[in-house]
Every structure is written in structure tokens, then in C-alpha cells.
Design a protein that fits this description.
By secondary structure, the protein is of the alpha+beta class. A hairpin with a 2-residue loop joins strand 3 and strand 4. Helix 3 packs across helix 4 and helix 14 packs antiparallel against helix 17. The longest helix has about 50 residues.
Length: about 650
């Protein structure tokens, strides 16, 4: 410490015996010294305050203790204002802290810097002894205290009339002292509003405020808010003693209310923007999935036919490109669901080893195309069955594996699974490769939306930059961590750690449903309700080749008429159709007859947003197939429900 502050340190120590808090700041508002009384008065600083700390650090601790949830978002502004007051303060003011009333003075020092002194004073209580304490026993008058308080203050007599009021309070209400003294508080409010009152008479204004205050004063001592003309808002706190005398403070919260309104308006605008974005994504998803269904369906039919090698290569290229595009669409929809908070995580038993084996089997063809090895270091015996969300874990793992294969021109990809030695429920899955590696300075960008480590990545390898962003959010939702790092020997290592509690060995095994092999029921009649000509052709060809009799209805009314004439064995129902949508069509078909009420209707739709499946089921449909559909999956679904209906 600079020796020039030493005399003040001695003074601070002497003042401890008087319970007077002292804090000394230099010209740059840095803390130089403080005494023990300061820490007793402000225990939030004890063990926290440090020599050389800026005064703003002192204020942050002070306000975090005092501010409520509504005001905490504005703490930065309060601190800035507090620092400005500290530098410019010329007279003392009074405030209450931790049940004590304090008078704080601030004085610039001749050699530079500023000293702040806190003195405990008799509380401006509301009992009958308050005036005696302030005007008699105390050397400081009640008027002096009230004028030194930074906020508006008034004293009300036992009959509720204003007996004292400070200048700040008069300024807030826009009245003179002569106008205010002797009024009841509701009369004061009526007087403040009289020039702008919506009520025709002063009595009406007074009655309004009497009722309003009765509503706002929830219980004695509870703060309530009051609105004044010129968009002024006050927070009022009244403390009433047993003799009826009340002491009230009036704090200007206008700026906080304006900021709250701005935040609310911004939130409403954001909600509207999110709703518009969701609607836009739903529309775009539907419009893309509809022609995608035609592309994928026709390609499937083409590949099932007789093709020479070149033709098969062309058709397979179309199929691969369509699958890639569909993956991008699914990524965009996942981002939308995550941002809307509509993606849920489940916790069910699953076999982690089987999940990893399945992921490897799915990636083997792509690895072989690039002449890469794909292996898994055998996990230890503790992996076994776990509790978690296998669908989302598989999604994250497949994303990491897909990236590793994509960015590895030669060598291979390895998966490793580890459990924490101190926590058997913590599992880490690592995916390492011998690929292009990572720039350590760019790792921070990897998991951001639409970001990739290198601007040339998109041009060289393609992709949206959404996969890792989605993976990070999924891992966060599952309570884990995800990261990446370059490997010293070349390539990269991606990992994610999840809390996956082991399924107890003595727990009853969970019987997983086994899907029976579909038994083809040739001759079953399927009514396809679809307004898109290409999708009509795709569905008709796929189902006809599988042995079903297919009828086509190009709209809801036509479907109702055909079902009225003769009920099919099953209906595949599109949702977005002109004139009558699939929901209404389903309800009308179900209402035709008792037999029609039991008719299996399966949604076959490009609506793939969150909640679409539930909406279909709520309308009376029995199942849901999203476009573009897997032809084999569609056939299995039709088989299952026709057989179930027949049984």
C-alpha cells in the first residue's frame, strides 16, 4: 500500500470502537483500505473485498444481496449509476441495510482519492418514539434524515394524513409541500392525477384510488406499485407502528418498468418470429418432402427393375443424393424443435453394446466405399445395459461417425467406450480418426450453429454445420458433455460423456417387442387419399407390386364417396389437401357407419413437425408414416394393420 494512506488506516482502526464503517478509494476508484466495522455492517464483503478492487466490485456484491428477481437483470445499470454517485456525492444520504439504518457520507481527500463513512443511526421507525428519537435524543433531526434519503419519504399520522414529506417525494408526485401536507395518501394520488384524470370529478378520482390502493396493498408492509402521470412508476413500502403512525418510502422504478416493457415487447416479437419461423419450416418441410417422396419412391422402383451397370449407377447416385438432402431437412427440423424446447429426452433400458454395434453396421458401407477401416475397441464388461435415450445417443454417435468417415481420406475410424472408475454410471464414447485433423484454435466454433472449423470445409466436403450443433444440444439435454481435440499422431478425436446408470442385474428383464415377419395378404384393398399425382403413382406402384389392390382418391370428398360406396381394408390418408384436409376427411369417414368407425386409417403425410403425429392420432387415425417413406416400412405398416383389422 502507498505510505500516504497509512494515517487513514490508523483512523479507520480507531473508528472501529465507534462502529463506524470506513472505506478508502484512490483517484481511480480502487479500494485502498477498510476497517472491521465496514465488514460488520456489510458482511457480504467479508472475505471478498480486496485491495486494488474497483468500487464497482463492491457495488455488485451489495446489489446482488438487495435486488429482487425483477431488478437483478438491471444490476449493471445500478452499478454504473452507483459509481457515478460515488464520484459526485456532495452530501450524505440515508438507507436501510440488513435491518439497520445507515447514513453514508463521502468526501474527496486533499491528496487525492475519496473516503466513504457509514454511521448507524436511529431507525426512522413508525412508533411514537420515532419523532423523539429523531428530534430529541438524536442530534440529527427527522427532517434532516428525510431530506438526506435518496428516495421519496413521507410520514403519515395515525389518522393517515401526511405530516412530513421530503423534497424528493414532492418532486415525484409533482406537488408543493403546502399541497401535500394534511392529505391522505389516496388524496395525494388524486391530486397528482387531477389534471389527467379520466374521471369527471375529483371525488371520482379519489374513489378510484381508494379502491385501487385497497387492491394493491396486499398486506401490511408489502411493497406495491403506483403509476403516476408522465409514465412515472413508484414502488411504495409502508411501515405502520402500533399507534398507527406510518413511515413510507417511494422509489422511482420508471426506468425498470420501461426496460421490463421493452423486454416483454422483445419477447413477444421473438415469440411471433419463432411462431412464424416454425410455420415457415413446417411449410417448407412439407413442400420439400412431397417431391422428395416421389424422387425416393420412383428411384426405389427403378432399382428394383432390370438395369445395366451404368443405369444402376445413375439410379443409386440419385438415391444417395436424395438421402443426403433428406438428412439436411431433418437437421433443420431438429434445430427448430430444440430451439422451441419441444424435443424431449426419455429414459429407458437399452443395451449400449448393441447400440454401438448397430451404428457400426450402418456406417460400414460408407467406410468401405472410401477403403477405410471401422472398428470398435471391445468395451469392458461393465458397459452392459443402461438407462437413457438410445434414439438420441444413436443420433449423436452416428453424427460423429459420419463426420469421421467423411473427413478421413485414408486410414480408419475407431470407437472406444469407457466407464469412469469412480462412477459406474458415467460413460464416455470416443470416436477417433486418421483424417484431416483439427486446428486447436477453431475447436470452439465446431459446435456452433452453421459453423465449421474451416471455411473451405463446405466447399470440399459439403454439409450444413448443423450436425455437431445438434449433437451438443442433445448431449446437454441428456446431462452430459461433448468435446473434440486434435490427435498428436494426426487426425481428430471427438468424445461425449453421459450419465447412463447401469440396469441392476437383479432387476426383471425388460421384454422388448419383437416385430413379426410380415405375412403378405394379397388382395387387400387400400384406398390412397392423395392430391399429388407423382405421389399417387409412387404409392400405387409400391403397393401393387406388393400384392395389394390400390384405389386412388385425389381429395377428401372423393375419399368419402368411395368409402360410402364400399369400405376398403385400409386408408392411407394425406393431410394437406385442397378443400378438405386429412383430419376432417378422417372424421367424416369414421362417422359413416359403425363399420367405418373401425376402419384403419394411416396418415401418409409430409407433415413432420413436432406434434403432427399426435394431431393425426387425435383425429382418429391409427398410425402415422412420414414422407418420404421407406417402401419396405410402408408395406409392413399396411400389412400389420390390415391383418390386425382382419383378426
Amino acid at each position: 500500500m502507498d505510505p500516504k494512506w497509512a494515517p487513514y488506516g490508523l483512523m479507520a482502526g480507531l473508528l472501529d470502537s465507534l462502529n463506524i464503517g470506513v472505506c478508502l478509494f484512490d483517484d481511480a476508484d480502487l479500494t485502498m483500505l477498510w476497517n472491521r466495522s465496514f465488514l460488520r455492517l456489510f458482511p457480504e464483503h467479508d472475505g471478498q473485498i480486496q485491495e486494488g478492487e474497483h468500487y464497482s466490485g463492491n457495488l455488485y456484491r451489495f446489489y446482488r444481496f438487495r435486488l429482487g428477481p425483477d431488478e437483478l437483470p438491471h444490476i449493471d445499470q445500478y452499478v454504473r449509476d452507483g459509481v457515478a454517485r460515488h464520484r459526485a456525492q456532495s452530501r450524505p444520504f440515508v438507507f436501510e441495510h440488513r435491518g439497520k439504518w445507515l447514513r453514508v457520507g463521502s468526501q474527496p481527500l486533499p491528496g487525492g482519492g475519496r473516503i466513504r463513512v457509514w454511521t448507524t443511526i436511529a431507525a426512522p421507525n413508525v412508533d411514537a418514539g420515532m419523532a423523539r428519537a429523531l428530534t430529541g435524543a438524536s442530534t440529527v433531526s427527522d427532517s434532516a434524515i428525510m431530506e438526506n434519503v435518496a428516495d421519496g419519504v413521507m410520514l403519515l399520522s395515525a389518522d393517515g394524513r401526511i405530516s412530513q414529506i421530503n423534497d424528493q417525494c414532492l418532486l415525484l408526485y409533482g406537488l408543493t409541500r403546502d399541497e401535500a401536507l394534511g392529505l391522505q395518501y389516496e388524496e395525494l394520488l388524486a391530486a397528482a392525477w387531477i389534471a389527467r384524470s379520466p374521471f369527471p370529478t375529483p371525488a371520482g378520482t379519489r374513489e378510484h384510488w381508494t379502491l385501487k390502493l385497497a387492491e394493491d396493498r396486499r398486506f401490511a408492509g408489502a411493497p406495491f406499485e403506483v403509476q403516476l402521470p408522465r409514465d412515472v412508476w413508484l414502488r411504495v413500502i409502508e411501515q405502520r407502528g402500533p399507534d398507527g403512525v406510518a413511515y413510507s418510502t417511494h422509489v422511482d422504478i420508471s426506468e425498470m418498468k420501461r426496460q421490463q416493457r421493452a423486454v416483454n415487447l422483445a419477447r413477444e416479437a421473438a415469440d411471433r418470429a419463432n411462431a412464424a419461423k416454425s410455420a415457415f419450416l413446417a411449410m417448407i418441410s412439407h413442400e420439400i418432402r412431397t417431391p422428395m417422396n416421389g424422387i425416393i419412391g420412383m428411384t426405389h422402383l427403378l432399382l428394383d427393375g432390370a438395369l445395366d451397370d451404368r443405369q444402376r449407377f445413375y439410379a443409386e447416385t440419385v438415391e444417395t443424393s436424395a438421402s443426403t438432402l433428406l438428412g439436411i431437412i431433418d437437421d433443420v427440423l431438429d434445430v427448430s424443435k430444440l430451439e422451441a424446447g419441444k424435443l424431449t429426452i426419455e429414459t429407458i433400458p437399452f443395451d449400449l453394446s448393441e447400440l454401438i454395434d448397430e451404428a457400426i453396421r450402418l456406417m460400414v458401407p460408407r467406410a468401405r466405399e472410401r477403403n477405410l477401416s471401422l472398428e470398435c475397441i471391445p468395451p469392458d464388461d461393465r458397459i452392459g445395459r443402461r438407462l437413457g435415450d438410445p434414439t438420441r445417443i444413436r443420433q449423436v454417435l452416428l453424427n460423429l461417425l459420419s463426420n469421421a468417415v467423411k473427413f478421413t481420406p485414408a486410414g480408419g475410424v475407431t470407437i472406444e467406450v469407457e466407464t469412469a472408475s469412480q462412477n459406474a454410471g458415467l460413460v464416455t464414447i470416443k470416436v477417433s480418426d486418421t483424417g484431416i485433423g483439427l486446428d486447436p484454435t477453431a475447436i470452439g466454433k465446431l459446435f456452433q450453429r452453421f459453423e465449421q472449423a474451416d471455411g473451405t470445409i463446405t466447399r470440399r466436403f459439403g454439409g450444413t454445420g448443423l450436425g455437431l450443433h445438434i449433437s451438443r444440444q442433445l448431449v446437454d439435454l441428456m446431462g452430459g458433455e461433448i468435446g473434440a481435440e486434435p490427435r498428436a499422431e494426426g487426425g481428430s478425436l471427438f468424445w461425449f460423456t453421459l450419465p447412463l446408470d447401469p440396469v441392476l442385474m437383479d432387476a426383471a428383464p425388460v421384454a422388448l417387442p419383437v416385430e413379426p415377419e410380415p405375412i403378405r395378404r394379397t388382395g387387400g384393398r387400400v384406398l390412397v387419399v392423395e392430391d399429388n399425382l407423382i405421389n399417387q403413382l409412387v404409392a400405387e406402384e409400391i403397393l401393387s407390386q406388393a400384392g395389394f389392390m390400390v384405389e386412388i382418391a385425389s381429395g377428401g370428398q372423393a375419399a368419402i364417396e368411395m368409402a360410402t360406396a364400399s369400405l376398403p381394408d385400409l386408408v392411407l390418408m394425406d393431410i394437406q389437401m385442397p378443400e378438405m384436409d386429412g383430419y376432417e376427411t378422417t372424421r367424416r369417414i369414421k362417422a359413416l357407419s359403425p363399420a367405418a368407425a373401425l376402419l384403419p386409417i394411416v396418415a401418409l403425410t409430409a407433415n413432420a413437425m413436432e406434434g403432427d403425429r399426435q394431431q393425426c392420432l387425435a383425429a382418429g387415425m391409427i398410425d402415422y408414416v412420414a414422407k418420404p417413406f421407406d417402401p419396405r416400412g410402408l408395406i409392413q405398416t399396411v400389412d400389420r394393420w390390415i391383418l390386425g383389422s382382419a383378426g
